[in-house]
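Researcher: Next entry in the queue.
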Amino acid sequence: MNSAHPDFLHAPKDLLHDSEILRLMRDSVPDAVRTLNGELLDIDSARGYARLRFEVVSAFCHSQGTICQGGFLAGMVDTAMANAAIVRGKLAVAVPTLELKISYFEAMGPGIVYAEGRVMRWGGSVGFLEGDLKDEKGRMIVHATSTIKIIRPKGKA
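Model: Structure for this entry, 157 residues:
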């Protein structure tokens, strides 16, 4: 087994280029990301960075379809942060969330949002992440921080 992450058990263990990682991630999009209408746009494994695009549809909204329910937005920014950590670990690690804090700055209705996730600290078994959701005009909708457990393949330090 090359990876501790169930979605990448068969990924090569010697991935060197972000283009290879991006291709593999785009080829195995989890159902949850599809449900949120998400698309991975960009990654940087050295920095621990991921950028995604999501489409908020009226089915995600309350108040007669005008305001996206916060749980959907949380799922979007959490996805960006998790992807940042997964690429930082070159697809070899699983990164379950230990803690998630969300701050909502603006209401968001149907439309496009961009999510960015960043690794702030990468330790032996714990990582610290942050992420943002912005609308197409660059308006900050959500800011989040997360603490993750870093699970490496057995036998790897």
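Model: The chain has a mean pLDDT of 94.
Researcher: Noted, moving on.
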